[in-house]
User: Which sequence fits this backbone?
């Protein structure tokens, strides 16, 4: 895939769909006034051919629209590669 596509690292929170996983991406920022670390979480759907399990840390890359809500593809499994034997 070209290098100009966005890449994000997140944790798989759901794998109940066929060839699709839900990945939670955590973003931490320092609040400008209160100097407290504020955490926000975004969940995205990603296409997955390998069948990674819940709890795996994956790297996802932007792609063309694959369905109504899927615009990401699992590029690599970084840790917790519990693949399903199907």
Assistant:
């Amino acid at each position: 895939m070209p290098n100009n596509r966005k890449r994000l690292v997140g944790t798989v929170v759901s794998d109940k769909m066929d060839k699709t996983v839900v990945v939670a991406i955590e973003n931490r920022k320092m609040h400008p006034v209160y100097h407290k670390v504020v955490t926000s979480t975004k969940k995205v759907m990603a296409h997955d051919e390998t069948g990674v399990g819940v709890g795996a840390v994956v790297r996802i890359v932007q792609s063309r629209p694959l369905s109504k809500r899927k615009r990401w593809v699992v590029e690599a499994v970084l840790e917790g590669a519990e693949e399903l034997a199907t």
User: Anything to note?
Assistant: The mean pLDDT is 92.
